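Take a look at the protein record below and tell me what you see:
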Amino acid sequence: MPISLHHIVIDAHDLPALARFWAEVLGWRILSEREREVVIGPDESAPVGICFMPVTERKAGKNRLHLDLTTAARDREAEIERVIALGARMADVGQSGNESWTVLVDPEGNEFCVVRPKETLIG
């Protein structure tokens, strides 16, 4: 059997707060909450979740890996506003303004993008 993706791990200064933010953004829930690990996912049987692990230092520099999120084209701007209301902020990472994505940062400064729907990217 080939190896498979289990969790995406995000270092966090405030594990519970960042996990709650991402659970709200994705419509997921907290599956496990321990002192040094918080796991979120759509449900216990989901093939992949996000795990938050503690770090003492604050984020510095641009992420080397980030999440791309998507929604229906008609809902994209409303979803961006919803995520901003949850605590995200717009980010400038050198975009030209003509991109098919919007760059945001979560409450701890981790970049992520809201991209156009996948069906518009393929084909």
Observations:
- The radius of gyration is 15 Å.
- The mean pLDDT is 91.
- The CA atoms of residues 36 and 81 lie 31 Å apart.
